[in-house]
Amino acid sequence: MLVTSAHAQETTPAAPGAEPHGTPPADAHGGAAAHTEVPGEAAHGAFPPFDASTFPSQLLWLAITFGLFYLFLKRVVLPRIGGILELRRDRIAQDLDQAALMKSEADAAVAAYEQELTEAKAKANGIGQQARDAAKGEADAQRRKVEGELESKLAEAEARIASIKASAMAEVGSIAEDTSAAIVQRLTGGKVDRAALAAAVKAARG
Amino acid sequence: MAAADKVDPIHQFHINKLIPIEIGGYDLSFTNASLFMVATVIVASAFLYLTTSNRGLIPSRLQSVSEMGYEFVASMLRDAAGTQGMKFFPLVFSLFMFVLVANLLGMVPYFFTVTSHIIVTFALASLVIGTVIVYGFWKHGLHFFHLFVPSGVPGVLLPLVVAIEVISFLSRPISLSVRLFANMLAGHITLKVFSGFVVSLSAMGAVGIAGSILPLAMAVALTGLEFLVSFLQAYVFAVLTCMYLNDALHPGH
After folding, report:
1. Which one is predicted more confidently, A123 or B251?
2. Which run of H or E residues covers position B23?
3. SS3 B21
4. Is B17 strand, coil or helix?
């Protein structure tokens, strides 16, 4: 610090120009006399960051530059970046909504397809059942018809048997009378009372 | 003299008048410091403006850098001060970008480091603390003094705690500005010293050149470290700004 301050004092008088880098020390008027017009100039040889003579200039230019920077960012840049980010967020949300909508549509389509499938299955089952029922009904009707025919034939046959049996049974009496008359005639040799015979046969038959 | 000039680590902090201006006895010259403030603002503004000019839904690489900076600062502020703090977002973002770009520009050889002057960092810190005080009183009135009275402190200890709180509040602009200033100053001096070793050792012939390898490696490593410090100090400055703004928004601890 001591060395550098001495060095700085050497180079100060040349300061208003370009960088004092390599400038020969103009120590001829190195005293404070040349700089008395600026109050803080006496401290010029100090450590530069603590040199109060530069403060007004630094503060002024910092205020100007930082103020403009702040206004520019606030008015132009930040709304723009904020807008970009907002737009992107909205767009992503919108796309997600779209995707959700499409998914629900796809789900609905799948549900509709399955519904149709079950309906078609039910319909096919119905048609099959109907066909089965119809075939069965027809078969039943046919069977009933055949059975009816058979039954009527049976009844007819039975009726004929009954009539034959009845006529046969009716003839049994006269046969019995004739037989018994013949037997009585042979045994007794006399005339047989037909009426008494018929009564006896009748009683025997019960 | 020329050799001594090269290894003078303070030389880089000298302020030279480029356009002398003097108003009312004050030296308001346009200096190399002013030039680099302008450069900082132009570089930062141009980068942010041009990279986002496409407004791409899918960002280009550079656009995503600007967006990352935006979201980085936004989440920093939201974490520290809540959504109410977002009204200070332009201020915090401007401070962060200004300090960051000024620090990084200072890393370029022969460039002036704006933030290596305490008056600049102190002015920025005062801006932060001034905002905290003005907004705090405007929003909460005298209620803002609750900042200095933590709840749940026994009555006996209260004067002591309040004194500590007041001192810590008053020291904030100093610590905020000195932290940034000292980091940048010390880093640049160290870099210069090690680079100076390389130059002076190399002037001593073959042995010196061999011996200068160590400080050269050190200078390279320090350059990397200084880039880290440049970013870190901008980050620390912005984080502390957010935390102080939180006090202005919620003074009741």
Report:
1. A123
2. strand B22-23
3. coil
4. strand
* A22-59 pLDDT, tens digit each: 444 444 443 433 433 334 343 446 788 888 888 889 99
Q: Positive or negative, the Cα torsion across B62, B63, B66, B70? A: negative
The share of chain B scoring above pLDDT 70, in percent, equals: 96
> Looking at chain A from residue 127 to 166, which residues have their Cβ under 8 Å from any Cβ of chain B?
none
- For residue B101, give the amino acid letter: V
> Which segments of B52-157 does DSSP mark as H helices, in order?
61-81, 89-106, 118-140
Beta carbon pairs, A and B, within 8 Å: 157
Cα separation of A30 and A17, whole Å? 16
- Give the orientation angle of helix B89-106 with respect to helix B32-51, to 10 degrees: 120
**pLDDT at residue A100 greater than cutoff 90:** yes
- Name the residue among B10, B16, B27 with its Cβ closest to that of A19: B16
Enumerate the domain spans of chain A.
1-50, 174-205
Whether pLDDT at B195 is above 50: yes
Q: Is B30 helix (H, G, I), strand (E, B) or coil?
A: strand
Please state, for a pLDDT cut of 70, what percent of chain A lies above it. Answer: 78
CB contact under 8 A, A85 and B30: no
Name which of A26-30, A96-100, A166-170, B28-32 the model is least confident about. A26-30
Residue A77 at interface with chain B, using a CB cutoff of 8 Å: yes
Kindly report the nearest CA distance between residue A125 and chain B, in angstroms: 57
Distance from CA of B102 to the nearest CA of A (A): 11
Q: Which helix (H) or strand (E) holds B192?
A: helix B158-202
Confirm if A49 and A8 have CB atoms less than 8 A apart: no
**What is the token pair recorded at A119?**
């309906």
Tokens of residue A79, six digits:
């709304």
Q: d(Cα B168, Cα B88) in Å, to the nearest integer?
A: 23
The pLDDT confidence band at residue B104, using thresholds 50, 70 and 90, is: very high
Q: How far is A13 from chain B (nearest CA, A)?
A: 11
Q: Where exactly are the structural domains of chain B? A: 2-249
Residue A18 pLDDT greater than 60, yes or no? no
B15 vs A40: CB contact, 8 Å cut-off? no
Tens-place pLDDT, residues B109-118? 889 999 999 9
